[in-house]
Amino acid sequence: MNRKKKINDTLKSKAKKANAKLHSSNKPKYISKAERAKLELDAGVAEAGVEAPLPDSESESEPVPAPPHLTMPSGSSGWPGQA
């Protein structure tokens, strides 16, 4: 029984692989991070007249408040469980 099962499994797997080769994937081809950066630079060189505006120096000097879920309640001394 094991011999028959093993033969059937190998035949099924070969048929499945052959069937999978017939159908092409809709997934786009992978482009590496370095290649994407190179494409961005090439696109930036092509659009040399268009430059991104520089951020205002005033907005960078203002501190950004921490989100409320990360701030400690008033009267807290630190870690939970510490007095």
UniProtKB/TrEMBL annotation:
<protein>
    <submittedName>
        <fullName>DUF2986 domain-containing protein</fullName>
    </submittedName>
</protein>
<feature type="region of interest" description="Disordered">
    <location>
        <begin position="47"/>
        <end position="83"/>
    </location>
</feature>
<dbReference type="Pfam" id="PF11661">
    <property type="entry name" value="DUF2986"/>
</dbReference>
<dbReference type="InterPro" id="IPR021677">
    <property type="entry name" value="DUF2986"/>
</dbReference>
<feature type="compositionally biased region" description="Polar residues">
    <location>
        <begin position="73"/>
        <end position="83"/>
    </location>
</feature>
<feature type="compositionally biased region" description="Basic residues">
    <location>
        <begin position="13"/>
        <end position="26"/>
    </location>
</feature>
<feature type="region of interest" description="Disordered">
    <location>
        <begin position="1"/>
        <end position="31"/>
    </location>
</feature>
